[in-house]
Specification:
The complex is a heterodimer of chains A (326) and B (296). Chain A is an alpha/beta fold and 326 residues long. Chain A is built from 11 helices and 12 strands. In chain A, helix 7 links the parallel strand 7 and strand 8. The relative contact order of chain A is 0.15. An 8-stranded mixed β-sheet of chain B has the order 4-5-6-1-7-8-10-9, with helices on both faces. Chain B has a two-stranded antiparallel sheet with strand order 2-3. Helices cover 32% and strands 14% of the residues of chain B. Chain B has 296 residues and is an alpha/beta fold. The longest helix of chain B has 18 residues. Chain B has 9 helices and 10 strands. In chain B, strand 2 and strand 3 form a beta hairpin. In chain B, helix 4 packs across helix 5.
């Protein structure tokens, strides 16, 4: 099924975000564009400073101090979230229609309350208003079983420090799914976990969302992880979106020079290492036009003057590039 | 609490020896013990034919020059209040009797070797990126002409492209300065590429050890198999079925299981595994494995 046939759930366009810091104005996002269809798992990948977390936070309008959304639209089920009243965002969007699985499960729980208290609290605020206490508890226990927490009733009485990283992340997943969201934003959900635990969590997440109509925006810097769970991948660099394609196509046949070089710089068993010449640019004085042009082997003069439009290089495979490769 | 328990291995001159494992496996503790930060409770560390784990302070200082340690967090070895020039010169002042001019010459050369320049000497650590800080950490230890460099998670937290650059640098420096590396990392893809031999650790013990290519293409120990299968690789999807050997988590060092420490998660366990710890034994093609299943 290609994107045309699926209903679009989230549509970010022309999103521009600046951060006002004492180093200057950081142009963190430049007219970024992203689409997520209903029931689709979309990976947002890129290296530090590419803007993936900023984009995700902008969708929920939870940017840190100093961050300002300068321009753009964030259409979610037809409404522009950037224009919705703060109060409405809180009652129906944040933690409800759109939930978040944070990167660091260690700091997401309050250490002095049992996990049960915190989960029940969330359901009181973000669950179904009509549900009574018993129904809420029943839903919580059912969800905990789904995320494979054994003997959930006993676990709810325990404190966060009594759980391992993997277990805490299972709680996080449960809390993200309990309110019945249409979109889950997972921000580096397995980065802090050991590799065998990461594999379990990825399997779990896949089984809980695929085929159930829940969309996921999966943010990660790990290309291997993205290839495990994402149906579609968007590659970002220095605040701009560069490539947007089905995961299989992107990884087997990348069309943007940056994506190709990124894949080539992954460690490979043969031992040949290819790095990308140059460094990620400062976003206080970012390059004009395509922000990758100073490091790009395909770049021409044109690339330094104009940002490329998003264009299709194959069915459902999009790049922003005047000289796509492959 | 035994962080590292009965570990024995050799590192050959000129090789890159990998130490891999997940949280709590003891690889960092092992690295620091070799360096001398931790005194081993039992056992010995032999360097260039000489026992070094129980030396007196004065003797230890002489050895310290030959074995250097690159921290996971580059910020640790870079004093935030000192300019780079002082950070790089300090080890030379302490360990050598070189003149000030000679020291300056050496640090200029080292900066150049790691791809930085003279103008960086007057800056402070916080003015550098993560990748640059690692280069500075390297320059600092290379000034002392070490023989053995212990790299503790040298690429963790680095972007893929920056990681590639740093790894290239490690390889070049090894060649240039005839170094031997102990490469501690949880990143298996990097270890596979960089190390000639590797030891897999689990819960304080080495469970498998041998030539990297062999260990990765044909793992013998059940934990090694699980570990390698878990690596998220482009083009290879994890199985969807609930895989018993992937359940559970690495044990807490305060609470290691009896017998073989992997038995609660092992799909192949037998009765003996729960009560008797298996020895690390050499087998076919120089592969060492600690497993009752293998050591019949």
């Amino acid at each position: 099924m290609n994107q045309n046939q699926k209903e679009t759930l989230l549509s970010v366009s022309c999103l521009t975000v600046h951060f006002y810091t004492d180093r200057g104005v950081v142009k963190a996002l430049d007219r970024a564009e992203l689409n997520v269809s209903r029931g689709e798992v979309v990976g947002l990948i890129g290296e530090s400073g590419c803007g993936k977390t900023t984009l995700a936070r902008s969708v929920l309008r939870v940017l840190p101090p100093g961050g300002r959304i300068i321009d753009g639209t964030v259409l979610f089920t037809g409404k522009d979230l950037l224009k919705v009243k703060e109060n409405d965002l809180n009652t129906s969007v944040r933690g409800k229609a759109i939930t978040l699985i944070p990167q660091d499960p260690f700091n997401s729980f309050n250490p002095v309350f049992p996990v049960g208290t915190q989960i029940k609290d969330i359901m009181k605020w973000k669950g179904n208003a009509q549900d009574g206490k018993e129904i809420r508890e029943k839903r919580i226990l059912e969800m905990l079983e789904q995320v494979q927490i054994p003997s959930p009733r006993d676990q709810l009485k325990k404190y966060p420090h009594q759980f391992s990283g993997g277990q805490r992340q299972r709680f996080m997943i449960a809390m993200a799914l309990l309110p019945g969201p249409s979109l889950v934003i997972a921000d580096e959900p397995t980065t802090a976990l050991d590799v065998t635990v990461e594999a379990q969590i990825l399997q779990l997440m896949a089984s809980l969302v695929l085929g159930r109509g829940i969309s996921v925006l999966f943010i990660t810097h790990d290309l291997g992880v993205a290839s495990q769970i994402c149906e579609r991948v968007v590659v970002m660099y220095a605040g701009q979106d560069m490539e947007d394609a089905p995961a299989d196509s992107l990884f087997s046949n990348p069309r943007h020079p940056y994506t190709r070089e990124l894949l080539e710089s992954l460690p490979n068993p043969e031992g040949s290492i290819k790095d990308i010449p140059g460094e990620v640019p400062s976003l206080v004085r970012p390059p004009e036009g395509c922000r990758f042009h100073p490091r790009c082997s395909q770049a021409t003069d044109h690339c330094s003057r104009q940002r490329p439009e998003k264009a299709a290089v194959a069915a459902d495979h999009w790049v922003r590039c005047f000289h796509p490769v492959g | 609490m035994k962080a590292v328990d009965g570990v024995s291995f050799q590192v050959l001159r000129g090789e890159t020896f990998g130490l891999v494992g997940e949280s709590g496996c003891g690889k960092s503790t092992l690295g620091k013990t070799i360096l001398g930060i931790y005194r081993p409770t039992e056992g010995s560390v032999t360097f260039k034919g000489r026992e070094i784990a129980h030396l007196a302070k004065k003797e230890a200082k002489k050895i310290r020059k030959d074995i250097q340690y690159v921290y996971q967090d580059p910020g640790i070895s870079l004093d935030p209040y000192w300019k780079i020039k002082r950070i790089l010169s300090e080890p030379l002042v302490i360990h050598t009797s070189l003149s000030r001019k000679a020291i300056e010459k050496r640090i200029h050369k080292m900066l150049d070797e790691v791809g930085l320049s003279q103008e960086h000497l007057s800056l402070y650590p916080h003015e550098f990126s993560g990748g640059q800080q690692r280069r500075l950490g390297l320059a600092r230890i290379l000034c002392l002409n070490p023989r053995l460099v212990i790299l503790d998670e040298p690429t963790s937290g680095l972007d893929v492209s920056v990681q590639a650059t740093i790894l290239k640098l490690f390889i070049e420096l090894k060649r240039q300065f005839d170094l031997t590396y102990i490469f501690i990392s949880h990143n298996l893809s990097v270890v596979r590429m960089m190390c000639q031999r590797v030891a897999v650790m689990y819960a304080g013990k080495i469970v498998e050890m041998g030539e990297t290519h062999g260990v990765f293409s044909d793992p013998i120990h059940p934990y090694t198999k699980v570990l390698l299968a878990a690596i998220p690789v482009i083009g290879k999807k994890h199985g969807r079925e609930k895989d018993l050997s992937l359940s559970g988590e690495p044990p807490n060092p305060e609470n290691f299981p009896s017998g073989c420490r992997f038995w609660p998660r092992c799909g192949y366990k037998k009765g003996v595994c729960e009560s008797v710890e298996p020895d690390l034994r050499a087998g076919v093609h120089g592969r060492w494995v600690a497993c009752h299943l293998v050591n019949q």
